[in-house]
Amino acid sequence: MSSVVAGFQDREGLQSALRRLHDADITMVETYTPGLLDEAPSVLPVAIFLAGVLTTLASFGLQTYANVSAYSLDIGARPAFSWPSFIPIALENGILAAVLVGFFGYFTVNRMPRLYEPIDESEVIRRASRDLWCVEARTDRVDAARDILKDCGAERIELLRK
Question: Is the pTM of this model over 0.90?
């Protein structure tokens, strides 16, 4: 499978190329831009929130089970279900789980660490973070992808062999 890398002067050219590539069923596409595109929201904030809430509830439930059912002690006439004392540990466990999911989720979502990518050797990609909107299309239909990118006004097109 080969890659076609193209650079555009403006965001509109890149977005029209992305639409045309998608219509041609070339779906393995990655963009490198100096600004943001309108992309789908990440699943990471939802995962972090759910990890925090579910771990907090599980920790609270575990403490409740341990102190009320499994190992109930009558110390100084304290009630078995003394829920205010369960809250700090439950919240700390929830925060720990949310931080761990956020840390490892970030690396998973961004497919990191990648120590080598063939696209790093491309001349087009060197300007991607400054002033060029770049797209990489990985496909077996290299000629079709190149024609689409050329029709959309790509300033420069390169072919990368993997």
Answer: no
